[in-house]
Amino acid sequence: MVSGLKEIGEKAVKAERILACTRGGIKDSALAAIACALRAKSDDIIAANKIDLSNGDAAGLSLSLLDRLRLDKGRIEAMADGVCQIAGMDDPVGKIISGTTRPNGLKIQKISVPLGVIAVIYEARPNVSSDAAALCLKSGNAVILRGGKEAINSNKAIVQCMRTAVKEAGLPSDCIQLVEDTSRESANELMRMNETIDVLIPRGGAGLIKAVMENSTIPVIETGVGNCHIYVDRAADIDMAVNIIFNAKTSRPSVCNACESLLIHKDIAELALIAINAKLVEKSVEIRGDEIVCEILPDAVPANDDDWGKEYLDYILSAKVVSDIDEAISHIAVYGSGHSECIVTNDYEASQRFLNEVDAAAVYVNASTRFTDGGEFGFGAEIGISTQKLHARGPLGLDNLTSEKYIIYGSGQIR
Amino acid sequence: MVSGLKEIGEKAVKAERILACTRGGIKDSALAAIACALRAKSDDIIAANKIDLSNGDAAGLSLSLLDRLRLDKGRIEAMADGVCQIAGMDDPVGKIISGTTRPNGLKIQKISVPLGVIAVIYEARPNVSSDAAALCLKSGNAVILRGGKEAINSNKAIVQCMRTAVKEAGLPSDCIQLVEDTSRESANELMRMNETIDVLIPRGGAGLIKAVMENSTIPVIETGVGNCHIYVDRAADIDMAVNIIFNAKTSRPSVCNACESLLIHKDIAELALIAINAKLVEKSVEIRGDEIVCEILPDAVPANDDDWGKEYLDYILSAKVVSDIDEAISHIAVYGSGHSECIVTNDYEASQRFLNEVDAAAVYVNASTRFTDGGEFGFGAEIGISTQKLHARGPLGLDNLTSEKYIIYGSGQIR
User: Fold this and answer.
1) Option in B198, B217, B394 nearest A406 (CB)
2) Count of domains in chain A?
3) Is B102 in Cβ contact with A409 (below 8 Å)?
4) Does B348 touch chain A (CB under 8 A)?
5) Does B26 have pLDDT greater than 70?
6) B residues 383-402 lying closer than 8 A (beta carbon) to A
7) Which of B243, B372, B378 lies nearest to residue A100, judging by beta carbons?
8) S-S: B31 plus which of B57, B87, B239, B350, CB 3.0-4.6 Å?
9) What phi and psi values does residue A307 have, to the nearest 5 degrees?
10) Which residue in the set A106, A240, A363 is minimally distant from B412, CB to CB?
11) Is residue A384 part of a domain?
C-alpha cells in the first residue's frame, strides 16, 4: 500500500460531490483563474522544469523526450490558452439527452452527469497536467493526475498553481490532485482503487496502455495506438493518392493518426508506387515492401512479417500490393489497430464497401488520416483518440467525459 | 490454456465480420428461425433440462436455484416469444447518430456499428442463453455464451438448436457459440481473450460480477447490484410513501431494483414508521432499524453496521431515521450501489436537490424503484441494468450493444 494514495482517493470523492453539482459559470471562473495563475507563475514553473531537464539530461533521456519535457514561456502560454478555450466551451453536464412520458404518467429524462473521479496516468509531457485537469474540471469530474517521474517537479509546480486558483474560485482544491509518488507501485495501486476512482485514462505510448489494460480493475478509456492504412484502389486518382499519402505519412510522423502502411491494387501498382516514392523521397521516407513492391522500387527494404503490424511513428512506411479490395479489407482486419483507415478511389461501390466493412474509429474516402483529431472534427479540445469500442470511439471530446443518469418524476406510481 | 477456447474466439471474429455487414431483414429472419426452432425442439430441450435438474438435485442445489434452472413448455414458449419481440424491434445498427460538413468540405458522419464479439458469462438460468443470443444477433454482435455448469445440458440443447436455425437463415452458425467447458479456468481464460473478444457482460450475482471486474482485461459492462433506498422526506404524503415502499420491497424482493433500505425524516418518523410497518407485516417483512426505529417499532431488529450496505434480496428492510435531507443524501452516497434511489416528498426544493445530488443510474421522485427496467422505460428487452458509469448506465437496451464509427467523405483533403 503506497502511503497517501487511499487518502487522495477519498479526498477526490469528497471534492467530486461538490463539483458534480457546481454550475457551469463557477467552473468557468475557476478555469479562467487557472489560466491566469499559469501565466503569473510561469517563472516558477520554468524553474521547476529546469530541475527536471537537468535530471533528465543526467539520466540520459533522449533528445526527443527532453524536448517533450521542456517548458518555456511560449509553451506555458499555450497551456493557459488551452485552458481558456475549454472555459469557453458549452458545459457538457446537465444536458437533457432524451425524455419520454410513459403510459402510466412517469416522466423519464436521461441527463448528462460527470463520470465522477477520473485518474489520468501519463508520461513525461507536463502540458498534459493542465490539459487533463481543465477538461475534467469543465466536465465536473475530480481528477487524480499521475504523471511520469521525469516531469515530477514541473507537475508539482503546475498542479500547486492550479489548486490555489481553483480554491480562490470557491471550489475545493482537491478537485485537482497530483500523485507525487511516481513509483511503479503507485501506478499499479491507482489502477485498482475501484472504491474511489470511476474511470482511468492512460495517455502515452503502447507500453503504458498495455500495462493499464492488463492491471486495471477500474473501467478504462483506451487511447491510442494507430497502425493506419491507406489503400490505393484500382480506380484511384494517382495525384490525389500521392498528396494524401505524403501528408498522412510526413506532416507529423510521431502521432497516432499518421499513416503507417500502404496497400496498393495490383493493376496500378507500378504507376502508383513510382509516383508515391518520387514524392516520399523528399522526406527520405524508408519504404518496407513486399516482394512486388521491392521489384518495382529497387530502393525499398524487404518487409518482414513484423512490419505489417507496426506503428513506426517515424519516416518509415510498409507497403504491400493486393490483388483486390477484398484482400485490402482482410489485411486491415488482421493488422489494423482500429484507429483510422483510408481508401483512395473514384469507384462508388469500392468506397461504400470500404466504409461499411472496415472496422475502425474513423474510415475515410479520399482524405488524409491525419484529420482524426478533436479539433479537426469540430469538438474543440480532446483528451485522446479512443480505439476501444466501449463508451466512446474516435476523438474524445468533453461529452465523452460524462455519463448519464435517469431522473424520473412520479406522482405515486407503483408497479 | 483451456482447449478450444482460442478457436472459439477466432471463429467468432470470422462470423462477426459477416454479421456486422448483414442487413436487418436477414438478422430478423434468423431470429424468427430461432424462435421456431426453440418451439419445435422443446421436447429435446426439456429432456436435456431434466438431466440438469436431476444432477442439480443430487448435488443438493437449493429449491430456488432448481426453480431457476427448470424449463417447461411454458418457459420455452416465453423464450421463443422473447426472441420474436427482439426481431420486431428497430435495427440498432447503421443509424446516423450525427453528421457535419467541416469548413474544408469533409463530410463527417457518426454511425452506430456493432460492438463486435461479446462474451456473456452467466449462471444457472438457461433462458439467458436465448435472450442474450437474440439481443447480440439483432445488434450485429457475435456472441460467446458461457453459462453455469448446472445448466450445461440445457444450454447445449438450446444453443445447438439456435445455431442450426441461424445457419438455415444464411448466417454463419458461429454467430452463436457455447463454451462447453464450465470450469473456473475456462471463465478466467475467457476474461483475458482481448485478441478476439471486444466486450464482456456478466449476468448474475455479486460474486460473479466481482470476479469478472477483478480478472477481466476485456472491457466489461457491469450489471447489477442494487442497494436501493427510499427516503421519506418531512413533506411526504404518508399514504403514498406506504404504497411505494410496500411495492418496492415486496412485489419481487429477489430483483436488483427492489428497495433494501429506508431513510425517514425525524419529524415524521413515528407516524410514517407505524403506517409503513402496519403494511409491511402483511408480507412479514423484517425491519432492521437503528436505535430510534427500534424505539418506535418494538418488533424491529437492531441493525448493525453491515446492514446499511446490504442487498438482502429478501423480505428484509433496513431502516434509519435521519435529521434532514442532507443526511439522507450523504448516507446514500456512502452506502448506495448507484442503482435506483427514491425520495417521497411534496417539497419542490427537496425533490430538486435529491434529483441533482444523488448519484445513481435512476433517481426517482414519488415512484417505486421497481420501474428501473428496460421494458418499463420503453426500451423493450434488456440485457441487464448497468451500475457503472462508462458506456451505459441504467437499463441496457439494444442501442447499448452498439459502438460508433466515424465515416468521412473527402475529395482529396490534406491537413
Assistant:
1) B394
2) 2
3) no
4) no
5) yes
6) 388-394
7) B378
8) B87
9) -60, -35
10) A240
11) no
User: Residue A209's domain spans which residues?
Assistant: 5-223+392-409
The B117-122 sheet, strands edge to edge: B176-178, B142-146, B117-122, B199-203
Residues B97 and B9 in one domain: yes
Report the sign of the C-alpha dihedral through residues B82, B85, B87, B89, in that order. negative
* pLDDT tens column, A68-103: 899 999 999 999 999 999 999 999 999 999 999 999
A-chain residue closest to B329, CA distance: A17
**pLDDT for the residue A250:** 97
Tell me: do A216 and A234 sit in the same domain: no
Q: Does residue B414 fall inside a structural domain?
A: no
- B191 and B88 within one domain: yes
Contacts B243 to A, Cβ<8 Å:
412, 414
Sequence-ordered list of residues with C-beta below 8 angstroms from that of A50, at least 6 positions apart, any chain: none
Do A200 and A179 reside in the same domain of the chain? Answer: yes
3-state secondary structure of A313: coil
Pair (B116, B207) in one structural domain: yes
Q: Which of A110, A245, A408, A409 is the best residue to mutate to test the B interface, defined by the most B CB atoms within 10 Å of its own CB? A: A408
Q: Is residue A365 part of a domain?
A: yes
ipTM of the complex: 0.92
C-alpha angle B192-B195-B199 in degrees, rounded to nearest 5:
65
Asked if B223 is an interface residue toward chain A (Cβ–Cβ < 8 A), one would say no
Strands A117-122 and A107-114: unpaired
Task: Please give, rounded to a whole number of angstroms, the shortest distance from the CA of B50 to a CA of chain A.
Answer: 34
Determine, for residues B407 and A376 on separate chains, whether the beta-carbon distance falls below 8 Å. no
DSSP structure class, residue A407:
E
C-alpha–C-alpha distance, residues A321 and A317, integer Å? 13
A93 and A173 fall within a common domain: yes
Question: pLDDT value at position B1?
Answer: 67
Query: Is A381 within a domain?
Result: no
Residues A160 and A83 in one domain: yes
- Residues present in chain A in total: 415
CATH number at residue A150: 3.40.605.10
Query: What CATH number corresponds to the domain at position B233?
Result: 3.40.309.10
- Are B405 and A359 an interchain contact pair (Cβ–Cβ within 8 Å)? yes
Partner A contacted by B372 (CB < 8 A): yes
